[in-house]
Design goal:
Elements lengths: L6 H11 L38 E10 L4 E9 L5 E7 L4 H15 L5 E5 L8 H9 L2 E5 L9 H13 L9 H16 L13 H13 L2 E4 L2 E4 L1 E6 L2 E6 L3 H5 L3 H6 L2 H7 L1
Parallel strand pairs: 1-4, 4-5
Antiparallel strand pairs: 1-2, 2-3, 6-7, 8-9
Amino acid sequence: MGERISENRVARLASLAGIAAQVGCKRRPGRYGGKPAVVAENRLEQRCEASAPDPVWVTDITYIKTHEGWLYLCIVINLLSRRVVGWSAQSRMTTDLALQALLMAVWRKKPGGRVTVHSDQGSQFSSREWQTFLHQHDIEPSMSRRGNRHDTAVAESFFQLLKRERIRRRTDPTRDAARQDVFDYIELFYNPKRTHTNNGMLSPVDFEIRHQKLNQAGVYETRGIPILRLLMICSGPYLVRRETGSKQDALRMTKTDRHATSPRYLERDG
């Protein structure tokens, strides 16, 4: 019900009466939200590489759709091998979700030295319970700045693989079914079987086994490429070993030196 009238007539009458529509309020240009909180320094600083078995872990949270509702998944991934060393799936996104994933990582890896755990500034990772757990287990916190997702790109990449290869193919009827599906993907496929270009086309488990054997043989790795600490230097018909641990000497290796560091040569030499 009402009066039929054209838009132009309404505009003319409103202008004569000094009436204007309320379209919203404008905010003055500037910075809002106050000074960003700094719970922990950013020790990773977009260096998505590692040179030791457990120096840096990255953790993040995602959600999975089911017919019962959302299932929240938190993972802890090893930056060196891209292995998921801890994970937890619950119906609520609380601090306990993140603590259970980190507890699994600590129980499974039992790191001997100090470990850095990098996360975003979510309430789960900035809570007092989370910080207390890190202090009790000698774990060093690291956090990205607000709105910066580059340092957790490794975890985001895993979530993308999980949803593309498993989750988006079907919607599980219950949270328990989705949790079992996540278990099958992580523990039975991703960690032991799925290859990565960052690992030299090895699975995370195979890469860690290879990395451990190379360390025992006096070899360290950079981006999946083995480099001997004992470089083979060709001197005429003889081979002389020189002890060194610097990457500069490794990068200056000659063609003969690189041949000496091949796995076939190491098997002959060992």
